[in-house]
Each structure stands twice: as structure tokens, then as C-alpha cells.
Design goal:
The structure holds two protein chains of two kinds. By secondary structure, chain A is α/β, with parallel strands linked by helices. Chain A is built from five helices and twelve strands. The chains are: A alpha/beta, B alpha/beta. Strand 9 of chain A pairs antiparallel with strand 9 (268-272) of chain B. The complex binds iron/sulfur cluster.
Chain lengths: 175, 741
């Protein structure tokens, strides 16, 4: 949390840079092309709860244990971004968003710009009702990591790389 | 402790210093530095800690109600809650769950609570294959060793050792070498084991009563896999892990990683509300889309009492339940940095707070094993995110252990010598150090004969054998003329009537009988600042008995000190203290030993000597009478642990700076001497090992020719022993009559 100046999205971006996580801004029109550039195939994903975009055809949108196991990229939605930490909140879903965000080497988190909040208390306050409603979510900050083997290594049991795609609004805001 | 026990203990510590010390030191120092860096970025660190503390206090207060609440919410969600009385009860329940599922394999993510249960052994006896999936825990499982740290369990093993272990055990095609290779190998192997596990077990860092959510603070991703890949999830947690609501998690999420490994936040904070909606990952049915599955997940929350409800009723041990097991107290502890949790720990828990946990869940004997490794230096106090006074807890347990001793064993030896209020069973070594004032009085009255006697070989051998005082450690030499005698004869050089200020200088035992010079320097400096000085007839602060766990004696001495100082405080005289550990008594520990009124008055009117000098100088007093940096030598300065905990070190720094001194300051946590600790036979080598970190800083090219300056008695002694250069107190540097270079 070395950044405390700038707008909320700017701080989010700077915090992600500190984590070595790349962030790409795009709008609905450029979304497919952006994903194509970032994701490596084979890719699996779970459907995005945003009306303005959906997963392109080349992403397996109905993952199974087998496709999950062989996928290189997993694409899921993030419901909140936390500027102070560069964290993304990943809701777990019956379609397997939790697994898709965890098994492949590269995780691409898709987040709406409007969902970036300044700090942890705000994010937790938003999560309260969802968890009380039975929901589960992961606050993920950068790739998985361990220092147990003598020095810091990424990709301990989870992704080695994380890429955040921030979806900017364009005329047709979803809601 | 007998001589044989002492020798055995010393041997064991020496072995750990040799085999595990280096890896533990490198890792804990890294974590600790990370903590400093990371909390410095927090806007309101103190407020966040207060908030975290308040949540825990409230939660433990309302614990029975919260247990009921969480039981309701989890059951409404479709899970089961089992409240286990003790380890055996919990294990029986978990074994039943495994048997019902006909489980062949259980994968487990790291959990100290499950270590407390020794659940692995229990399940393995039933033929269940238990696999630790946290990389550090797995290394230990493969090596058949126990954790040495509550957060980083394999902290004591180097990469080379892990590589050797894996290469020997698994015989891979290509020998594994780098951390990346080892991690990748473990990931693949564990990935396969997780894939066909029948049950996943996790702990819980927090449980929210309002939603039934399990919060898991991790970085590897194995906890997530263990919880969601198999269809059955068992979470084990002590009852103290419950907080009222989801919103209460916020301060802990911001504090826990920073406090422990120094990360701003761990990679994952999982907030799982089980049974989770995530589909089961069934590799026996690899082509069924997740979305098409309709899983019937099973979730069991096993809440464990195992002594905790009794701790809640115990006014002292209750604090332990606020602990969030972040490990900051271990990482900031100089002794822990040297030996790690295999020496500084009990059956399960390690580090500063381990005494509280072990006494509470495994009983006092388990805490007795390592409790003395807490020297009361207080470096952990400000590090704890829930403001637990960890050294005080350790003192309380030490006192209880003392009282468990054999009442009649030592009584006869020295009824006369030891005017304390302790039962006869207290260990001889402890009683000797706890009654240091009496010894000092006697030693001074009979000096130089006493010094000569004490320096003789036979006397040292006897002291070592009977009282465990290491013969390699030079003993303090008592002065025939005490500071008070000197001052009474000399009289004041400033007239009370004309002086701008009037103080009472507290004659601590060491200054009064041993290091009289620093007392004289203090008087001269104060007088040069036009302060009228009085040195009252007042006894030891109680620090010596307190550090041996002799609380009743400390209490008695505290009231005597207060009685002697009260008239001065009433007359608006400031109390000035040279020895930081005595000032810490007045400002911290007296809260536990005196009634509130006296404690507050003494706390508010007492000052550390350099703090006082700083205050006088800040009031535009003329510093011309003090020796300035232009005449003074360049300095290598080591502040004192308790002084730093009270954040008083800045005054010494500021005074040196204002007077133009060239100062290099040490940044090590502790000198290792810590009062009587460095004298003890069983800890001498550990004390020197800790001291070596400081010695290294003061033998570098930049520091090796500087005058060594230290604020505490113990630090001065230790530096003297380590460096063969005499160390002096900062006040002696400022003394207009100072004689050293
Ligand atoms: S006592 Fe405090 S510092 Fe130590 S582990 Fe517990 S919470 Fe952390």
C-alpha cells in the first residue's frame, strides 16, 4: 500500500503494479480483442455477470474437471477492486468460478471500473450482505505464492500470473 | 533446576543454535523488517490495533452467545456444528466423519489448532491417508518433524536441506535444486493427492457468527483447493476464533499479514460460507460440466474448547484468547530469532504468546519448559496487533510455576539472605536474582573483599553449581561508596531556592551500588542545567523479582517505592530515572502492581533521564554546561528494549543531534543480556548468540572505533563483554567532567 495519492483507479493501478500484476483497460467494444491479446489457450471461463460483455467463443465457457486441468488461462469476473491493496474480490459460483480462478497458471479477472473502491472496510461492508446471504468470495491479491522453499516463488498451488482487465463504461452502461 | 538439568538445557539450546539457528534468524529478521516497513504505510496503525482489540474483547466477553449464534447460522446454511470439549472429543468426531464418508484420503491445509489435536495421528491409526498440503507443513510431514513457527512452520529448514530431503525421498529424474523447482514439484505431487481426496480439512482464522463464514488467511491456494475440491469439508477452530459479524473482519485483514510476515495482505483471504456453492471437482467424472452438477456438499465446523472456556474465566490467561496468531511476537523476539520454536515453544505453540496457549490448553508444565526464554524485554508489546501484554502473561505464568515448586526444598539455605515474599519452592537461581538488591547492599558494604571473593575460581565454580550462574560471565563489581553516600557527603551544587527546577533522581540498585559513575554524571549534568537534585532513600523498583516471576515480592517493593516517592510527587518534584527497565516499571508494570491513583501519579511524573534533559533543553535552557559533539567522540549507540517500547529512544537521539554528536545507531531488537538472563548457565550461549547480532553492527568499519554508548545496564555489560570495549551511558557522554576520549 505504498500509494496514497491519485484517484481511486489510479491508486488501484499503482498497487497492482507493485504486485507485478498487469492491468489493462478496455471498453465493451474492445473487450474481445483485449482478451485475445492477454489470454493463452486453452482458456476456460465462467460467464460474466455484466450485460455489456460476454466470454468470446474461443474460451470454454462450460468448464469440466478435464478442461480445467488442461487450461492455461482461467477467466472469471471480479465483483470489487480494492485500490489500497490492488486486490480483486472473486465471488464463488455454482458454475465453478472459484476453481477457474485457481487452477490455471494465468488468471484473468474482469472487473468493472465502477466497482473499484478505495479501501478494505468499504469492500468488507459490501461483502457483508452477500456472505450473510450464503455467498462465498475470495479477496485475491496478486498470484499465489510461497516462501516455504527458501525464497519467494509464485504459483504455489494457484496461478503464477494474474491479469486484471478493467472494463470502462461506454454509452450503454449495464446494470 | 538441578545442575544436570541446566547442562542438558544448555546442550539442547547449543544444538539448535548450530543446526536451526541460521535459517530461523534469516527468516524471522526478514519477517520482522517486513512488519516495520508494512505498518509504516498504514495511516492509522494504532487506531486499527485498538479497533481489533476492542472486537476481540467484545467477542470473548459474549462468547457463549456467539457460539449459539454461529451454530444457528451454520445449520441454517446446511452445515453441522460440533462443540468439542477437548482434543479427544474433537478427534472422535472427526474420525466418525471420515469413517462415514469411507474416506481413504484427507487433505489438510495448515492449522495450528489441528496440531493441538494431533488429529493426523488419530486418523492415520484408522488407516486414513492424511496429507498436509501447505508446502511448509508438507516438508515437515515428509521429514517427520514438528512446526517451529506458528505461521511459517518449516522456517528452520534451509532450501538446501529441503532439496536434499526431497531428492532422497522421491528420487526425481532430475535432482531438485532451486526454490522454484521444489515448489513446482510439490505443487504437482500435492495436486494429484488433492484431486482424489475424500475429505478436505482446514482451520479458520476467523469465523463470523452472523453469516457462518470461515475466513482463511493464506497465500498458496492449497486451503482453497482443500475446501472446495472434495465434497466434504471439515473446519477445526478454537472457540475464540468467532467474531460477531463480517464487518468485524476488516481491521484483522489489514493487520494480520503485516504483523506476521510483513506482507500488506496475503495473496488470498478466503471468505467461505459453507457448504459452499462451488461445484465439487470430481476427476472420476471428468467430462461433466461444473454447471450441470448438483452437489450435495457436507460441512462440519468443529469448535474446540480444550481449556479455552476456562481461560476465559481466568483474569490473566483470558488475554491469550484475543491472540490472532499472527506470529509478530515470535518474529520480534531476539531469543526466538536465535533458536526458533523448537526451543521456544511447547507441545504445539511457539513464540511469545505460546506460554499463554500452552498453559491454557496443555497445562502449566508444558509452558514451564520454555517460559524462561521470555526475558521481559517487551519488544513484542508494540508488535502485537491486539495489544496483548505478552511479557506480563509470561510473568504471571512464571509466578504460577514458581508456586508449584516444592515448598520445603530450599527454605533452609538462605532464609536470611532473601527477604522476599515467595514460597520456599522457588528455584534458588530465581530467588538469588530476584533478591539482587539485598546482595548488592551486602556486596557494597563488604567491598572490595566481596568483589575479590566473587572473582575467585572456587567461588565461581560454586556459584555455577549451586545457583547456575555461568562462570564465563564477569560479575558486576560493587562500589564501597554508594551513589547516595557520595551525594550526601558532597552536597548539592545548586541551591534549591534559586534552581529553575527540582528533581528526585531515582537511585536504582545498579547505579547506586555498581555503576556509581553514571549516577554522578547524571547529577552533574542536571546541575549544569540548573536543576536542583535530591537523591532519596528508596529501594529497588521490583524489576528484579518481577523478572523471576516473583510477583508478590515485586508488589511489595512497588508499594515501598511509591511510599518513598509520594512526598516528592506531592511537592511537584519530577522523578528522574536512569535505568530504562526501572522507568518501564513505573510507566507500565506498576499498573498491575499498584492501585490506580498512585500508579498514575508516578507514571505521569517520572521521566527517563535523557527525556528529561531533552525537555529542559527544549525549554530554551542553556546547554553550554554540557559536553557537546565538538569536544565529544563519535558514538555507536544502542538504545534499550524497554526504552524503545515506550518510544523514549527518540529523546536520546534528539539530544545527541542537538548537541552536534556524530551518532550511528544499532537497529537490532535486543542485546541478549536482559538483566539476569545472560548470567544463567543454561542461557549463556544463547545470550551471546543474540548479542552477536549487535556486536556485528558495532565492529563494522563505520562503527568499530566509536565510543560505545548504551542506555541500559544489561546492554552496557553485554557490549562490554562482546566487544572488549567499555560501554557508557548517554548521560556520561554529556557529563562536563567526562574523561574518555
Ligand atoms: S500474541 Fe499478538 S503478536 Fe503474538 S501471535 Fe498473538 S496476536 Fe500475534
Amino acid at each position: 500500500m505504498s500509494v496514497d495519492t491519485g484517484s481511486v483507479p489510479e491508486r488501484f493501478e499503482a498497487a497492482l503494479a507493485d504486485l507485478d500484476v498487469t492491468v489493462t483497460y478496455t471498453d465493451p467494444a474492445g473487450f474481445d480483442r483485449t482478451l485475445e491479446r492477454i489470454a493463452r489457450e486453452p482458456a476456460v471461463g465462467t460467464s460474466l455477470p455484466f450485460s455489456s460483455v460476454s466470454l468470446p467463443d474461443w474460451v470454454n465457457g462450460e468448464p469440466t474437471p478435464r478442461s480445467l486441468d488442461s487450461a492455461v488461462t482461467g477467466i472469471t469476473a471480479a465483483s470489487i477492486g480494492i485500490a489500497d491493496y490492488g486486490s480483486v474480490v472473486l465471488p464463488a459460483t455454482p458454475a465453478g468460478a472459484e476453481q477457474v480462478s485457481l487452477f490455471p497458471d494465468l488468471h484473468v479477472a474482469v472487473l468493472r471500473e465502477a466497482d473499484i473502491v478505495a479501501n478494505m472496510p468499504t469492500a468488507i461492508a459490501r461483502l457483508g450482505p452477500e456472505l450473510r446471504d450464503g455467498g462465498s468470495a475470495i479477496i485475491a491479491t496478486g498470484p499465489s505464492a510461497t516462501a516455504d522453499m527458501g525464497s519467494l516463488v509464485r504459483g504455489a498451488h494457484g496461478p503464477k500470473d494474474v491479469h486484471v482487465v478493467v472494463l470502462e463504461p461506454s454509452g450503454e452502461r449495464d446494470e | 533446576m538441578s545442575e544436570t538439568d541446566r547442562r542438558a538445557k544448555a546442550d539442547r539450546i547449543r544444538r539448535l543454535l548450530e543446526t536451526e539457528g541460521d535459517a530461523v534468524e534469516a527468516n524471522t529478521l526478514g519477517f520482522n523488517q517486513g512488519r516495520y516497513d508494512s505498518v509504516a504505510d498504514l495511516e492509522d496503525y494504532e487506531a486499527l490495533k485498538d479497533e481489533a482489540r476492542a472486537i476481540k474483547e467484545d467477542a470473548i466477553e459474549r462468547l457463549p452467545e456467539l457460539i449459539d449464534r454461529v451454530t444457528e447460522t451454520v445449520e441454517e446454511n446446511g452445515g453441522t456444528v460440533y462443540l468439542a470439549d477437548d482434543a479427544a472429543d474433537a478427534n472422535r468426531y472427526i474420525r466418525e466423519v471420515a469413517a462415514d464418508r469411507e474416506a481413504e484420503r484427507l487433505v489438510k491445509s495448515k492449522s495450528m489448532t489441528s496440531e493441538e489435536l494431533e488429529i493426523n495421528e488419530a486418523l492415520e491409526r484408522d488407516g486414513v491417508d492424511v496429507v498436509e498440503t501447505d508446502l511448509g507443513e508438507w516438508v515437515l510431514q515428509v521429514a517427520a518433524e514438528s512446526p517451529s513457527h506458528i505461521v511459517a512452520p518449516a522456517i528452520h529448514k534451509s532450501r538446501e536441506e529441503i532439496a536434499d530431503l526431497f531428492n532422497e525421498r522421491f528420487d526425481p529424474d532430475e535432482p531438485l535444486e532451486t526454490a522454484a523447482e521444489l515448489t513446482q514439484f510439490a505443487r504437482e505431487r500435492l495436486g494429484e493427492l488433492i484431486a482424489d481426496a475424500d475429505v478436505g480439512m482446514t482451520g479458520a482464522n476467523f469465523i463470523t457468527a452472523d453469516s457462518g463464514t470461515i475466513a482463511l488467511v493464506t497465500s498458496e491456494g492449497n486451503a482453497r483447493k482443500s475446501a472446495v475440491v472434495p465434497d466434504t469439508h471439515v473446519a477445526v477452530a478454537g472457540v475464540e476464533k468467532i467474531v460477531p459479524a463480517v464487518e468485524d473482519l476488516a481491521p484483522f485483514i489489514e493487520l494480520i499479514g503485516r504483523s506476521g510476515t510483513g506482507q500488506d495482505i496475503t495473496s488470498y483471504v478466503s471468505l467461505l460460507t459453507p457448504p459452499v456453492e462451488s461445484p465439487v471437482v470430481d476427476f472420476d467424472d471428468p467430462d461433466v460440466a461444473f454447471a450441470d452438477r448438483d452437489d450435495d456438499r457436507e460441512f462440519h465446523l468443529v469448535l474446540i474448547d480444550n481449556g479455552r472456556m476456562a481461560m476465559r474465566e481466568d483474569d490473566q490467561l483470558r488475554e491469550t484468547l484475543y491472540c490472532i496468531r499472527c506470529s509478530a511476537c515470535a518474529n520480534s523476539c531476539a531469543n526466538f530469532q536465535s533458536v526458533g520454536g523448537h526451543a521456544f515453544g511447547g507441545e504445539t505453540y511457539t513464540g511469545g504468546i505460546a506460554t499463554g496457549w500452552e498453559a491454557g490448553v496443555h497445562g502449566q508444565e508444558s509452558a514451564a519448559e520454555f517460559n524462561d526464554l521470555c526475558t521481559g524485554c517487551t519488544r513484542c508489546v508494540n508488535a502485537c496487533p491486539v495489544n496483548i501484554d505478552i511479557p506480563w502473561l509470561n510473568t504471571v505464568v512464571r509466578d504460577r510455576i514458581n508456586r508449584d515448586g516444592d515448598e520445603s526444598r530450599f527454605e533452609f539455605v538462605y532464609e536470611e539472605l532473601v527477604p522476599d515474599d515467595e514460597p520456599g519452592g522457588v528455584d534458588l537461581q530465581k530467588r538469588l536474582f530476584g533478591n539482587y538488591e539485598t546482595l548488592a547492599k551486602l556486596g557494597s558494604a563488604t567491598a572490595p573483599v566481596s568483589n575479590w571473593l566473587a572473582s575467585l575460581g572456587p567461588a565461581r565454580t560454586l556459584l555455577e553449581r549451586v545457583a547456575g550462574i555461568d562462570s564465563r560471565r564477569p560479575l558486576p563489581e560493587f562500589e564501597r561508596e554508594t551513589l547516595r553516600d557520595w551525594y550526601d557527603n558532597r552536597g548539592s551544587r545548586t541551591e534549591s531556592a534559586d534552581a529553575d527546577r527540582e528533581v528526585v533522581l531515582y537511585p536504582d540498585t545498579y547505579t547506586n551500588y555498581v555503576d556509581v559513575d553514571r549516577g554522578k554524571a547524571a547529577v552533574r549534568v542536571l546541575e549544569a542545567l540548573d536543576v536542583h537534585v535530591r537523591i532519596p532513600d528508596v529501594g529497588e523498583s521490583g524489576r528484579a523479582p518481577l523478572s523471576q516471576g516473583m510477583i508478590a515480592t515485586a508488589e511489595e517493593q512497588a508499594s515501598r517505592v511509591y511510599d518513598a516517592l509520594a512526598e516528592h510527587v506531592d511537592a511537584d518534584r519530577d522523578v528522574v530515572v536512569i535505568e530504562p527497565s526501572d522507568l518501564a516499571m513505573f510507566r507500565r508494570e506498576y499498573e498491575k502492581l499498584l492501585p490506580a491513583g498512585p500508579f498514575e501519579r508516578l507514571r505521569d511524573d517520572s521521566y527517563e533521564i535523557l527525556e528529561y534533559v531533552y525537555g529542559v533543553l527544549a525549554n530554551e535552557c542553556d546547554a553550554a554546561g554540557l559536553r557537546s559533539g565538538t569536544d565529544g567522540p563519535p558514538i555507536a549507540y544502542h538504545s534499550h528494549c524497554q526504552q524503545r517500547t515506550l518510544e523514549l529512544d527518540r529523546y536520546t537521539r534528539a539530544v545527541f543531534e542537538d548537541l552536534g554528536y556524530d551518532v550511528v545507531e544499532s537497529d537490532v531488537e535486543c542485546c541478549g543480556m536482559a538483566g539476569s538472563f545472560g548470567y544463567k548457565r543454561e542461557y549463556y550461549e544463547l545470550s551471546m548468540d543474540v548479542g552477536d547480532r549487535l556486536a556485528e553492527q558495532f565492529t563494522e568499519p563505520e562503527t568499530r572505533d566509536r565510543l560505545v554508548v548504551a542506555s541500559g545496564t544489561s546492554c552496557e555489560d553485554q557490549l562490554g563483554d562482546l566487544l572488549d570495549r567499555e560501554a557508557v551511558h548517554p548521560i556520561q557522554v554529556l557529563d562536563p567532567r567526562a574523561r574518555f576520549v
